[in-house]
Structures are given as structure tokens and as C-alpha cells.
Amino acid sequence: MSIPGGTPILEVKGISKHFGQVRALDRVDFEVHPGEVVGFVGDNGAGKSTLIKIIAGAYQADEGQYFFDGREVHVHSPRDATSRGIATVYQDLALCDNLDVVANLYLGREDCFGLPGPLGLLDEVDMEKRASEVLKQLSINIPSVRTPVASLSGGQRQTVAVARTVMWDARVLIFDEPTAALGVAQTRQVLDLIKRLRDRGMGVILVSHNLANVFAVSDRIIVIRLGRRVATFDVREASREEVVGAITGAQFGEDDGLPHPAEIGA
Amino acid sequence: MTTTAKSPADEPAVVDAAAHAPLRQMPRILLGLLRKRISEGELGVVPVVLGLVVIAIVFQTLNSNFLTALNLTNLMAQVAAFGTIAVGVTFVLLLGEIDLSVGSVSGFCAGVLVVLNVKYGWPALPSLLAALATGVAIGVFDGVWVSKLHVPSFVVTLAGNIAFLGALLFILGSSGTININDPFLSDIANRLLPVALGWIIAAVLVGAYAMVSLRTFWRRSRSGLVVGPFAAVVARIVILGGGVAAATAIMSVDRSRSVISIAGVPMGVLVFLALLLGFDLLVQRTRFGRDVYAVGGNIEAARRAGISVDRVRIAVFALCSGLAAAGGIMAASRLFAVNQSSGGSDVLLNSIAAAVIGGTSLFGGRGRPRNALVGALVIGAIANGMDLQALSSSVKFIITGIVLLLAVTIDATARRGREAAGRA
Prior knowledge:
Chain A is an alpha/beta fold. In chain A, 30% of the residues lie in helices and 25% in strands.
């Protein structure tokens, strides 16, 4: 896949953010297109989390513009972001261990009949039907949708968290270190799922320290360093060394004599 | 995938095959299910029921009056009040919170009832509603204090426990005891339903349960969802029907020792069971109940899912104190009086013990109101049996304390077991 042209599904321009005297972000641009996986990398403290939180509505930028589908929008809260279809899959997954898969997929948005509001009766059959369909579409294999999430493996839990966002029509999905706690096979499950999401036309932002994973699924890699966007790579033309160089601030592709971390944080 | 013991692919197939097995194979299927449950440590309420059987055998051996219609009906009537409180405690425990004030709140609200009714001459029904509203208001106060001011529920309700004990003494004034004369109020616990009506209610209850579970089974299989063995559905209906029929039969026997007949289900027992089932349905079947489990399971996840966590907490504390008021009213009605020790001594301990023994976890997110019945029966049977042995209060308190400690230990151990099995 070439670098997609056209209108990005989500674009921020000239984002700056200060925390007291510290400048966390300095006029950063960021964009993700439909059907694209953007790997977003940078060293600890480079400003990745800050930008992600601004995109997700958890922080407000001091300066900058926010475009969704080419139109400028104002995102003041996480709710503003999720209502536009921008969802974050958190590291701690935000699942309720004591509830089963169906209940977690529908958490806070249960299908009910009878009375309105909190006394509505849960329509378990319909919820289970639709939950199974969504899991099937995403080729997610779970022993039973009625098992409590606590008994699932780390990879399965991750996929349930993703399925929840897909279920509610997310169009941009932000993964924050999705594979940090996972084994090899489980990591592959999650990466495969990210590819399937891209093939469904979603925009995916993958924040990770693990360059092997970033290279495995990304179409573009955006590097941020000391609060500035310093490089953008087409993944087919980039080498691991170039990306590491951009992250650490060394010359691209040149050996500066210092021992490079072969894979930062991995 | 590497960590799951059972093969995900073939489980649904096995269950599907079982769903259409002939009834002749029923015992084998049920045994298989039971064995699977045991190996997974998901036995639910079964061990507690077995414990109840053991308790019954022991006390019956010690005193042949234990398993008589009179004593068993008494037992049900005794557990009705604190069992009702235990239903409320279950809600609070589901959130991973605690309410240590349910005892004195129950006493205080009963005090409000009799003071309004006797001292101020209010009619029975408005007094009753005012007492319940007092309970709900206390719970709202607790909930606001816990969720908005971030004071641990342990502290808020411990303070409430002392304060409402004082409040009860205050409103009772110098008399110390106020007797209930209003027939409506004494009927709440003591009136016996006509035997026929008891049977009708029992039949309707079992019929409704059977209808709902069969309908769910068919709707699920029609929708192509995985269903358990049909035999298990039938078995549950039969077990519930048998239990309800046995209980109704026992309470319908003439237990009088004189010529005047005493038979029928006491109203208090019916009120307790109705509240128990009603709130069990609330927690299992409604969006509110789902929110309660979510907040108890992972408060951050609940918040991110858009659940109004504070509102759920306040509602749960309000429910708990409201049910404490209801339990206090039932206890007062049963004793025909409210006095300075109403809601005191072992009411708090008994209601928390009933919820915990019924399998509701102190760590939040696990359990259901329905099981408070079994827990209350365990606590009630031990107290009742010790009364028949004429044991002193000292021994009774010690034994009740030990039973509670054991129950909580079992909860903690089971939790560790689930964690080890990756099901926490």
C-alpha cells in the first residue's frame, strides 16, 4: 500500500502544549488516513503520550487545530473524541474481570427493553448474538462469549477490548503499547487484528517502543523527539537504523560510534 | 490461547449435543456438569447448602424438636428480618464497599415508625413510608459522603452505626420501649396467609420461573446461540419447585399444640422472599444491576464506559439503608415493639454474615442477593439450634463469630484459587 493521499480521517496541526515551564509539544502536526496504520514512536518523555491524550480529548492543546474528515472540530473532552469515533485501547484494557465477554462489549450501552433508563431489562439474547457476530467478523477466537473476562489470556483480553471499540463504530483507533504484556503468539494475534482493522478502512495509530511490531504492521512511521515531529518514514523504504537514529537524535543511518540500542525498550 | 486448558473449538459442540440428548441420559449429563463445576471451583451455593444439611442433622440429633414444622416456620420468621437487611448488604458488598450501620439504621428507622405511629398518632401506612424514606435518606447521605468526599465507607458507616444508635435512644426518650398496637403494623410479620393462598403463590412463582427459563432456552436455541443441556434447565425447575413446595408444605402444616389451628406462611416470610427475588432480578436483569457489577469489578472501566459511578454508589447505599429500614420494621413488627436494643447486638453481624456466607465476595463484583437466603438460613439455623440447646449468649456469640470468620476465610481462599486459575 502506498502512502495514502487524499483527506486524512484525522489531522492535527501546529499542536503545542506546555506543562508549567516545560514545553511538552512544539507545533506538532499529525495525521492518519483511512485504511492506514501509523506507527508513532519516540523515546520516553518525547511527547507521545501527551499528543495521544490531546487527540483522545483527555488533554487540551494550548495551540493548534484539530480536523476530522477534513473539517475543523473542537475536542474538549474524551466524550467529544469518542462521539466522533476516535477510540483508545488502553494498556490496562478497562475491562471488568468479573463480567463475561458480552457484558464487557456492551458495558455502559446495554440493549434493553421494557422500562427506560436504569430499570431497563437486559436483552441478553440479542446482545450475545451481535457480540458473537462482531467477534466472528474480526476472526477473534474466544472459547465462549459467556466466560468471564478474567479467565481469558492477555491476547484474548486485548482483542475483546478492540472488539468493543469496533462494535461502537470507531473510525480511528489508538493503541497504546498494545503488546507490552503479551507473549509471542498473543502479540501476533493482536497485530493480525490491527491489520484487519486497517483493511476495514479504519485509521490506526500504534504507539509502541517495540520497533519490530511497528515495522510489522505500520504503513508510515512518525517519529517525535523532544516535543517535535522530527521524521516520517514510509515503512517500505525505511530501515530500523534510520528510525532508531531519528528517535535518539543521532545522524540517520550513520554510526556515531556510540552503542545504539538495537531496539529501544524492547 | 496457550494458557487456556480446554480446547475452545470443541466445547460448544459438546454442549450442543447434550442439548438434544434424550431424557434417559439426564443423570449422566447432570453428573458431568457437576463434575466440571467442581473442577473449575465454580460451585456457587452448593457447599453452603450442604453445610446447611449438616447443621440440620447435628441439631436434629441433639434435639428432636429442630426439624418440626413449628420450629422450621419459626426459623424462617426469625431470618426474615436480618435476611432482608442482608439483601441490602449484598448490594454494598458487590461494589466492594461495606455498610457497618445497617444494624442501628434498622433500629432507628423502626423507632421512627413507632414514634410517628404511637406518639404522634400517624396512621400506619404513612408512618411506614416515612420510616422507609428515613432509611433511604440515610443511605443517600452515606453514598454522597463516600463518593463525593472520598471518605471510606468503612468509616462513614461506622460513624453512622454509633450515631444512629444514639438517635434511636433519643427518639425513644425516657420510656425506652414503645409497643406496637396497630394491627396493620403487627400483621407485617405475624399474620398468617391462608393455606390455599400460600399454595397459589408458590405455584405462580414456580410457574413463572419455569416459563421464563424455558422461554430463554428456546429463544437462545432459535437464535443459534450455545445452550446448556435441556436436562439442566429441567433439573433446575424441578429443584426449585421441590424446594418451594417443601417449604410451603412445612409452613402449611397445623403447628398448633392446642385446638386452635395455626397454619400458613407468615406474612413476614413472604415479604422477605418477595424482596429477595425482586432485588435479585434487579441485579441480574437490569441495566442498573449490570452497572453495579461493573463498578464493583473495575471502577475505572465503568467510568470510561460512561457509567455514572457516583450515582450508582449513592443508589446502592440508599438501597442498602432502605432495606435495613425494611428489616428493622419487620423485626419490630415481629416483636410488637421497638426498644433500646432494637437493631443492636447481632443484627449487623448476622446480616453481613448472611450475605458473605451466601457467597457474596467482600472484594466486590461477585455474588447475588438470592444467595443471602441460604446464608441467612445458615446463621439462623445455628442461632435457632443453639437456642433449643439453651446455650448461653456467650457461647452463641463465640460460635457465630467463628462461623463468620470461616465464611470470610473461604471467600478469601476461593479468591486466591480463582486467581491461581486465572479467573479472578
